[in-house]
Amino acid sequence: MPDRIRLDGRVAVVTGAAGVIGTATLHLLAERGARIVAVDRQGADLAAAVKDLPASAEALTITADVTQEDEVKDYVRAAVDRFGSIDAFYNNAGIEGDIKPIPDYPLESSRRVLDVNVVGVFLGMKYVLPVMLKQNKGSIINTASIAGLMGSPLIAVYSASKHAVIGLTKSAAWECSGTGVRVNCVCPGMIDSRMLSTILQGRSGGNAPPPVEKIVDRIPARRLGLATEVASIVAFLASDEASYVSGSAYTVDGGRTAA
């Protein structure tokens, strides 16, 4: 009986690949046999992210801005030209934006957050979905957040953008009804990362953020999450083990949203 968690020979495209979650995910996907297309704006960081991938990953790196339609078209075309298909798409690129109350939030900054986190996700699906629908198979996994499930002080625009990602995910899943294409999203909670550090620093008014012990007090698991734990859910959703899963928002938050 085949191992349904394996991704041998499948083509996985990962955006935001140079970030901590993107990098952890592309490494796990490669470990499970996938061929990798890594996309990020930061060329040097992207090279470092794929440096230790196995040769079997046949890693293709593409420097692209997910908010630019032509660049999204290009990374999708490059993936298909190189490998002939896209079997899994981790639509992961995102930014936290400013850490400010709504009255102080600059309009330009809010537009940038929505552009990356919502328009970038939309454009990725706009150009990957036709590839998957044509082959009648594929899995799209968008990165949302527990901030897309609840209110979050001082990151209202980020929270709004992640609510939008969940809405896009559920709507796309319905549009793919009756096909072999599935669309889901992951909602990370407090993951040990540069983004979390930036948010905590901003909420502390530029002072030292509260000690980890105080932060994790609100998390039933009593610790921060790891990027590898998010990657595990993405890899599951990309695999045949999740063949009956679509339109779902998977929390990876140590129970933070259970209350």
From TrEMBL:
GO terms for molecular function: oxidoreductase activity. It holds the Pfam family adh_short_C2. The keyword Lyase does not apply. InterPro entries: NAD(P)-bd_dom_sf, Sc_DH/Rdtase_CS, SDR_fam. Gene3D superfamilies: NAD(P)-binding Rossmann-like Domain (3.40.50.720). The keyword Heme does not apply. SUPFAM superfamilies: NAD(P)-binding Rossmann-fold domains. It is an enzyme of class 1 (oxidoreductase). Keywords: Oxidoreductase. Its EC number is 1.1.1.-. Belongs to the short-chain dehydrogenases/reductases (SDR) family. This is Levodione reductase. It comes from Bradyrhizobium ivorense. The gene is lvr_2.
